[in-house]
Amino acid sequence: MREGRWRRWWPLAATAALVVLLAATNAVPTWPGLIHLVALPPLDQFTDLRILLSRASSWPAFLVLLAGVAAARVALMAWLLGGLDARRLRFAALFYTVAFGPVLLAAFADATAYAVLYSRLFWPAVALIGVLVLTLGPVPWQGGSRLRAAVVLTWRRGLRVEVMLPYCAVILALGAVAERVPVLTVPLVPVSAVATALAIRAMGRPALRRPGAVLTALVAVLAAASLVFVATRGYDEPEPGPPQPGSLLILSGINSASGRGAIHATDVHRLGYRCEQVYYFSYAGPGDGQPQRDATCTIRTGAPYEPSDTQRPFDEQVDLFVEQASALPRPLVVAAHSHAVWVVWEAVATGRVDVDALLLVGPFPSTPTGYPPPHVNAPGRVFGDLLRAAAPATDLVRFHFDPDTPAARELLGTAGAAESILAQPLPATVRATSLPAATDLPLMPDDWQLDVERNGCPARVAHPYLPKSAAFEDAAIRFLNGRPPPPCPPWRDWGAVLVRPFGVPAGQALR
């Protein structure tokens, strides 16, 4: 009996051993998502695609590896279903074929989020793969001889939530441990395989008597938790700060335009500044003023600029900042959002302009993945080509992105570019504070803190809205007036710890 049981599970054990060997020899990157290579489908397929998109250096290599991995996945599922006969092989092949489209979409969105630092792609990708795992994960193990019949059985049995929920909890916990203690990542691969085997074995037991009621209760609990999460993420508006001396220079991020950036709408009066003290940076250079649009104050300086101006070469952007900041009244406080953080840091750290304080809003400490130039065979070639093909679709969501503009190529396309900029220390006389968005934390695989005087508690505000949020206003007022920051809950980054294993290999793990 024991020999028969071992006969069923040895291919899964061999797969886990192979993953350990590949990780030990650096054939695959060691990152928290490694444990998903021996997870239930389609999470295993999702992980295969994440690795192939980030590591394949050419289309032929990608297609050959994809075919080989797919064949191995089909054979493994067929064996776990009972043997390598034609019926089971056909079932497994059809399952992975049906799952491939949405899984590829999730993997591509995941990789894109890391490459262009856009968390609004990452969270939908994680949600999509979560739905696919919960709905498709139990399908192969319900005993149906045909895929359609197995899907029907799965729904009749309430998606086997009594098995899938504990299994997903275990996978999340293992990923969190691997994220917090990277040295345990490889040893956790066999543990993940054991969890997968136990879940498959549990699928063979009778389902709950009232699976529909349990599934309905689960949906109700998730809906209630979502409502509570949304309802509790607001911030109270802070009391206006006292009058500030000198001037405030505001820089918007990539793809902004004159008066059309979130930071333009910052309530500068609440920070303690009068409009005559406030200046707005222009990516088009010096000039006699720009359209006010959403800006709190009249924009009296700088030339009107459009989103295309924010894509000019990085060195030119730094030159323009130095030129526009040098003549402003001191003490000078600079507020920079997102991409502009790199521009300001480069200028200040290299001593090209003197400032007194920096308010860094929504900074990204790293560019963790990058992508190769067009027609260049290098790791990430397939992803880069897909990114360029999909770029026109960004116009549909009013986020125009061209991966080969000078700024995108120098910063986002070059892994480690942001780290090189931020590794330069600021002058000792410059005070600086950083406030990241909590939703951006999964895209920061190594660390979210900068080498500044104060790293603010990650705010529960979406990246685009952070500069005009009460969270930023409160953090800025406290910092400018030497008041301590509010307490930061220790659980504020737990969400990122749980979901980062569902990202692509990035940062130090990729390099």
TrEMBL record:
The keyword Lipid metabolism does not apply. The chain crosses the membrane at residues 59-81, 93-115, 121-139, 159-177, 183-200, 212-231. Keywords: Membrane, Transmembrane, Transmembrane helix. Coiled coil: none annotated. The keyword Calcium does not apply. It comes from the Bacteria. This is Uncharacterized protein.
